[in-house]
Amino acid sequence: MPGILERKLADGEFVVTAEIGPPKSADPGDFLKKARMVKGCADAYNVTDNQTATVRMSSLAGCVLCLSEGMEPIMQITCRDRNRLAIQSDVLGAAALGVRNVLCLSGDHQSFGNQPGAKNVYDIDSTQELMVLDRMRAKGELWGGERLAKAPDLFLGAAANPFGEPAEMHMIRLAKKIAAGARFIQTQAIFDVDLFERWLGHAEREGVTDGASVIAGIIPLKSYAAAKHIAEGVPGTFVPDRVLERMSSAADESAEGMRIAAETIEAVRGMAGVSGIHVMPIYWYSGVRPLLETTGLLG
Amino acid sequence: MIVGTRKPFEEIIALLGEPVGNRILVLGCDSCMAVSLASGEAEVKELIDELREHSDALGLGWEFEGRTLKRQCERKYEERVSELIDGSDAVVSLGCGVGAQMLSENFPLANVVPAINTSNMGAPEARGIFKEKCMGCGDCTIHRTAGVCVLARCSKALQNGPCGGTTDGKCEIDPETDCAWATIYDSLKRRGRLDDVRGLVPPKDWSRSHSGGVRTVRVG
After folding, report:
1. pLDDT in tens, A111-144
2. DSSP-assigned beta bridge partners for residue B122
3. ipTM confidence score
4. 8 A C-beta contact, residue A229 and residue A270
């Protein structure tokens, strides 16, 4: 049976997903505290996988904790930390525990995180991860052809960076991810709506996004410092100068950040090719609910 | 070629420790490490000069010999200096990891001190600038990607396209490093061959790489 995310996307409803970063902690309470701050705000919740290459509670554990709260999880799995054995095994285990949405990612390079001396894996890339998991789902087979007693019931997603250069090359890669089995695409955070709309138009004209739903990434900026950090320190994120200027000159920075996020949500909602938004609160979990209230997306 | 750099002098001194005797042989290699500007005759002399200064300052009384072999990784060249090796209390190798290992293998009693950090299989792009090109996967497929190896030249070894972090044609982890996929794109675009990279590349069979175990190549 399809999950909430898959069902709503199939029905053409505008969806909301929200990201939860697991804590550096073995205490489930530390995860649940964050989860409860956004509970009820979204249709499904991404649980990140050692984001920015920083060791945290595992994505699978976070997903199971989400399920215990009645929240539908999206398990993020990077290719940085796991080879094809581990990825397939973890997905079988996750499916057995009730997780069905999986977001396939390359992962941030370990040099950005707290284990810069780590050896990365990259046995397969995120497109190949989709190929492997889609075969498990559709054919009930492991990579290599062995039959599974029970195939995992998966809804697969991938990430896209609408601002990546060379744009044509990024578009080719996105087309491959969708051909490999991605059914939903969560984008990097959008701070330049016009540029995003151009990208979307390009994707639609070329039929790249046929067969997959585009969910637009939103980061509410809590402060000018956060905006600067995201602009400079988060790979693949593009924050135009005019956004930084708005944040720096605002009397109330968090209110301005909220306004920018709300304006972005309003703008992308009006675009035909956008199926939903994906809110990445970074460190501002308490900002998610008011943001969605402002934009009429709550409940 | 194999690319490497000389270890810092302090590290060489630490590795050298206190040799049982005072006869130090510095052994260079005239192949890859010489091209890497780390082990030609000039570099052998330079290291001996530094070691002599250290010995003089501490009154260690070390005596030095220096030779540069055509290829330190081959026994036949090593054997040409076998008497010197046998007569030394420490052999400081300015060969790559292969050369230093072959010295240990062929002269089991020699006290071999590795003085090179071997880095990669690459090529000089400008004087003193060497870039990684190949990772020895045992199954070359660079024809698919404009002659650029994504396994060696993409920091995440991505085989189906660039990651989201590439900026202005540079790698997200080092602005000095070209993004392999930007290079591939430019090359294929120029030649009207972007279709080369449109197809899905399935998971690679790594069994011919080091993942398949230590490799022996048999020829003939």
Report:
1. 999 999 999 999 999 999 999 999 999 999 999 9
2. B132
3. 0.94
4. no
For the stretch A27-68, pLDDT in tens is: 999 999 999 999 999 999 999 999 999 999 999 999 999 999
Closest Cα in chain A to B182: A166
Secondary structure (H, E, C), B139-189: CCCHHHHCCCCHHHHCCCCCCCCCCCCCECCEECCEEEEECHHHHHHHHHH
Contacts of B203 in chain A (CB under 8 A): 84, 123-124, 128, 131-132, 143
Q: How many CB atoms lie within 10 A of CB A179?
A: 19
Give the angle subtended at the CA of B182 by the CAs of B178 and B185, to the nearest 5°: 145
Number of domains within chain A: 1
CB-based contact B156 A235, cutoff 8 Å: no
Q: Tell me the backbone φ, ψ of residue A206, rounded to 5 degrees.
A: -85, 0
Q: Please judge whether B165 and A109 are an interchain contact, meaning their C-beta atoms are less than 8 angstroms apart.
A: yes
- CATH number, domain containing residue A45: 3.20.20.220
H-helix segments, B26-81 = 32-35, 41-58, 75-79
Strands B129-134 and B116-126: antiparallel
Structure tokens at A233: 């320190």
CA distance A236 to B134: 26
Give the distance from residue B206's alpha carbon to the nearest chain A alpha carbon, in angstroms: 8
pLDDT tens string A86-96: 999 999 999 99
Question: Torsion angle of alpha carbons B175, B181, B184, B185, nearest 10°?
Answer: -100
Q: Which of A80, A124, A159 is closest, CB to CB, to B203?
A: A124
Whether residue A243 is contained in a domain is answered as yes
Q: What is the token pair recorded at A79?
A: 């290719």
Instruction: Give the domains, in start order, of chain B with CATH numbers.
Output: 2-119 (3.40.50.2300), 135-196 (no CATH)
Cross-strand pairs, A147: A141
Contact of B160 with A125, CB cutoff 8 Å: yes
